[in-house]
Amino acid sequence: MADTVEFLDGRRHVPTASSVLVSSSRWLNEPRIRDWVTTECLRRNGADHPLVDDLGSMVAAIDRVRGRDHVDRLIQAERQVNPALDRWFADRFISTYSVADLGEYAPGSLGRQLHDQMVRLNLTLELLPQRREDPNWAPAADLDYFTLRTGQTHDFDHLIGEVGFDAVSEAFPAGLRSGNMFAHIGAELAGELLVTNTLVTFPWLMRTMLHYPQAWPQVWHNFSHGYEVGAQSACLFTVRWEDYLHLTPAEAREALGVKGFRGANDTSAASLVFGEGRLIF
Questions:
Q1: Which residues are within 8 A (CB) of 32 and not within 5 positions of it... i.e. 6 or more apart?
Q2: Which of 74, 127, 225, 230 could disulfide-pair with 180, CB 3.0 to 4.6 Å?
Q3: pLDDT tens track of the chain, all 281 residues?
Q4: Is 96 helix (H, G, I), strand (E, B) or coil?
Q5: Whole-angstrom distance, CA of residue 39 vs CA of residue 61
C-alpha cells in the first residue's frame, strides 16, 4: 500500500511564501496563459464566443513569457549552420500583392483560389502602414519577421493540402508547420517558434474529443497528415509563395518538393459538428 501511495502521490511539497501560484513552468506562471489553455481545452464552441476570442491577450502573454533574447540567440545559432534559413532572414521578403492581383491568376491556381476565398468571405489583405510609407521597411528583429511572414503564408498551407478553409481544416496547417519545422531546424528553436501555433490550435484537439467526438477522426486525419507531409518535405515555411501563385496545388507540390501527400480532404461536415451547426472559421 505504501508503494502504491507513493506512486499515486509522490509529490514533494515545496514551501513558499508566495500568495499566488509559483511553478517551474514559465507558462504556468502566466495567468493569462493558464486561463487561455483551460478555457480553450475545455469549452464548447458556442455562438457567444468566437473561435479565437481573446487571441490578442494570449499573444501579449506569450511575448511577456517567451524571453526574446533567448529566442534570438537560438535563431542566430541556427543561422550559423543553416545557410537557407540565414538567407531567408537576410532577404526579409514581405508580400505586397492585392486581392485584385490575385484575381488575375487562372482558375485553379494558388493565386486564384486564394482570391476566391477572400472574396467569398469578404476578407481584405492587411496592408502594412510601414510598407506604405517606406517600401523597404521590414521588421528589424528576426523573431518579428518570422511572425509577420508566418501570418502572410499561412493560407498556402491550406491550399497545398487541399483541405479547404473551414475550422477542422486548420489542423492540417498546424501539423504541417510542426512537422516541417522540426525537420529543418533545431528542436529547441522549433519549439519556441511554434508556441503560438501550439497554444492556438492544439487545444482544439482536446475540445473535439471532449465535446465533438464525431469530428475527431477528421481532426486527427488532418493533423497527422499535415505532420507527415511537413516532416517528409523540403523546407516549406521559408518558401516565397508569391513565385508560385500561377501554379495549381499539385504543380506547386511538385515544384516545392512536397512529399507524403495522400489527397484532398473535405472536412466541412466535421466542421459543422465542431461548430455546433455553424461553419466557424
A1: 57, 58, 60, 61
A2: 230
A3: 555 666 666 667 778 788 878 888 999 999 999 999 999 999 999 888 888 777 888 889 999 999 999 999 999 999 999 999 999 999 999 988 889 999 999 999 999 999 999 998 887 776 566 776 777 788 999 999 999 999 999 999 999 999 999 999 999 999 999 999 999 999 999 999 999 999 999 999 999 999 999 999 999 999 999 999 999 999 999 999 999 999 999 999 999 999 999 999 999 999 999 999 988 76
A4: coil
A5: 15
Q: What contacts 221, CB < 8 A, 6 or more positions away?
A: 265
Dig out the grid coordinates for 193 from the structure. Answer: 517558434
The residue written with cell numbers 505586397 in the block is: 96
Distance CA(111)–CA(241), nearest Å, equals: 9
Q: At what angle do helices 68-81 and 142-161 cross, to 10 degrees?
A: 70
105 vs 264: CA distance, rounded Å: 21
CB 167 within 8 A of CB 281: yes
Nearest Cα to 184, choosing from 66, 78, 77? 78
**Positive or negative: CA dihedral 168, 170, 173, 176:** negative
Distance CA 119, CA 159 (A): 16
Q: Do residues 40 and 53 lie in contact, with contact meaning Cβ atoms separated by under 8 Å?
A: no
Other CB atoms closer than 10 Å to residue 192's CB: what's the count? 19
